[in-house]
Structures are given as C-alpha cells and as structure tokens.
Specification:
single chain; alpha/beta; 12 strands; 31% helix
C-alpha cells in the first residue's frame, strides 16, 4: 500500500493520522514481517489491524547457491504458485532478478519459463516479497525485472512495485537502479514509456522479423519494426537507458549478416546491446552436440567476441554479459517452477 492508502487504513481502524507514517517506517524502511513488531503502535491498534490486515511477507521456501556466488530462491505466491528469484553479487553491486508471473504466456522457444506456460500473475505483494524477504536484501543495489514472466503483461503490478520502491516513504531508490525487460507488447510498452522513468531492456534476439517470429511468437502481434518506431519517439539521451538483449545461438544468429542488420536497425538510436550466452533448457541426447531438444546451439566464445567487436567498431555500445548461476539453473532463460511441486532441497 501507498502512504495515502495506509492513511485510509489508519482511519478505518480508528488510529490517528500520524500512524500511517509509523506503519510506512515499519513496513518499508525496517522491513518487519508482522504487525506485532510495530512497537510504537499501541497494542489495541495492532490488534485491530490484525483483524483485517497482514504485512504480506513470507520467507523463501528453499534456496540454492552457485559456485560463482549466485543464489536462487523459491517463493510461494499469495495464490499458492511458486516463483524463482535470483541474487547476483558482483564486487560492490548486488542485483536481484525478480519474477512478475508464474510461468509466461510468451512461449519463446529458447526459454525454460516460456516452456512452462502461464499459471498466473503475481500481485504487488508477491513481487515486493521477493525483494523484502531476500536474505541479501541489505546488499541490493539494482533490481531487474528479468525473472519469470513478461512485465508488460502484468504492468499494473510492476508499475506499482517500482513506484513504491522509488517513493520517498519507500526505499527512495533512483529509477536508474531499476530495469524492466520486455519482448515487446504494444499496449503495455507505450504505457510503460509514458508512465515509468525506469530503464528499459528489449528482448530482441534476432533482427529479422520472420526469423524472430519463429523463435518468439510475440513478434507476430507486435512487430520489431513497429516497436522500434515507437521507441524512436522517446528521448534516450537523459537518465533513462535503453538496451537490447541479444541471446546468441551458434550458427543461427551469430554471423555478420545479423550484425550488419543490427547496425542498420539500431545504429541511429541511443542504446546499448547486451550479448547473452544461451543456456540449454533440456536434456541433450548427445552432450557433445552442445544443444538440447529445442534445436538451438550454444554460441562459440570467439564468435561472440567477434560479433561484439563488429558492433562496437560501428558505433553500437556492446558488451557480453557474464553468465551467472548456470550450475543451479539460475542463468538467463533457465527459471522454471513447473517441476517444483515440493520445495527444492
């Protein structure tokens, strides 16, 4: 709830108006897990609050820890679903990759979450709980909406979550510390651009529309061309950053033909391109093939470096994103809770 909503709660249960600020401090700044912990609120008021409300926090059901320091947590949603959340430490930075849906409707062929199917939207409470109940919460410097689900398909909850995080009474975070990703949904994307100052990351992965549609069904309802036309209407020279995520598949989108098309499409935009290693999402009949049942192959490291250099030398800022947490299925495209009817070990 916002500060104004908490003022309404205070009035509803007969508490003084200033009690809303007390509740805000306990919930958002001190991170309490129960109403009983609000010790400067009278016992009678706490009892009245408990008749109708709860904080909404719940600890992770289970955790896994990677050899590279990455941690993955399994959370229970308010509706009984399960989602995975990833914490990625990197020197003085701590990034949380949060989920916004149980599964995903986008059905991207290369993504484990896309293969899970859609099982429900997360509430604002569900999304915030991943952040507030993260064991490494005090180490966080950045939040990315790149976990399970498509943020533009649950935009109301995503926007309210980011607004609470940026609010003076919340964490007072700068929008530059929050990035929201999308495959590109027409209505949601425009609304996000108009209403949110947070960074935007576009899941691109292929610059040729027909090939992109074969990998990402969302292309058929909102083309890459239309999406880029919309993005060009906005100013990206200020604090808000635009980036394009590009998963590289060996022998499929890693040749100079694709690099040239990326330069043609993005060369006049203020943006950056992040190259991402593809990670196998299923059992491989022959591990030496370096692929899984989806038909995709892992890109060669040398080829990725050459692709990056091609883009960089032609004016596109480009980096290769480090792969983290692959040994616990926490890396990009590997989150999936369909197989977790019971908590992880």
């Amino acid at each position: 709830m916002t500060l104004d909503q908490l003022k309404g709660v205070a009035a509803e249960v007969g508490m003084p108006a200033f009690a809303a600020k007390q509740m805000v401090q306990w919930i958002y700044q001190k991170g309490v897990a129960s109403i009983d912990e609000m010790t400067n609120v009278s016992k009678a008021s706490r009892e009245r609050l408990q008749e109708h409300y709860e904080i909404g926090r719940s600890e992770p059901l289970a955790a896994q820890h990677s050899a590279d320091g990455t941690s993955k947590y399994l959370f229970l949603t308010r509706e009984g679903g399960r989602v995975e959340t990833v914490f990625i430490p990197d020197d003085d930075r701590g990034t949380i990759c949060v989920s916004c849906q149980v599964g995903c409707k986008m059905a991207c062929r290369f993504c484990a979450t896309g293969q899970q199917g859609f099982q429900g939207n997360l509430t604002v409470t569900d999304i915030l709980n991943q952040i507030y109940s993260l064991p490494e919460r005090d180490r966080l410097t950045n939040i990315v909406f790149m976990g399970q689900g498509e943020p533009m398909d649950n935009l109301d909850a995503v926007l309210q979550t980011t607004q609470l995080l940026m609010a003076e009474f919340g964490w007072a975070w700068s929008p530059r510390r929050i990035t929201v990703s999308t495959v590109g949904l027409r209505k949601g994307l425009k609304r996000f651009l108009d209403e949110s100052p947070c960074h935007l990351a576009i899941s691109l992965h292929n610059p040729f529309p027909e090939e992109r549609a074969a990998m990402m069904p969302a292309e058929r309802s909102y083309s890459l061309t239309e999406m880029l036309d919309l993005l060009r209407e906005y100013d990206w020279t200020g604090q808000r950053r635009l980036s394009f995520e590009y998963i590289m598949f060996g022998g499929q989108n890693d040749s100079n033909r694709y690099a040239r098309e990326l330069v043609r499409l993005l060369g006049n935009m203020e943006c950056r391109v992040n190259l991402i290693r593809w990670h196998r999402i299923g059992l491989t009949p022959d591990p030496s093939l370096n692929r899984d049942g989806s038909g995709f192959y892992e890109a060669d490291e040398t080829r990725m470096a050459a692709f990056r250099d091609y883009l960089t030398h032609r004016g596109l800022r480009c980096t290769i994103r480090a792969s983290r947490g692959q040994d616990i299925d926490a890396a990009c495209g590997l989150l999936n809770t369909k197989t977790h009817p019971q908590p992880l070990p």
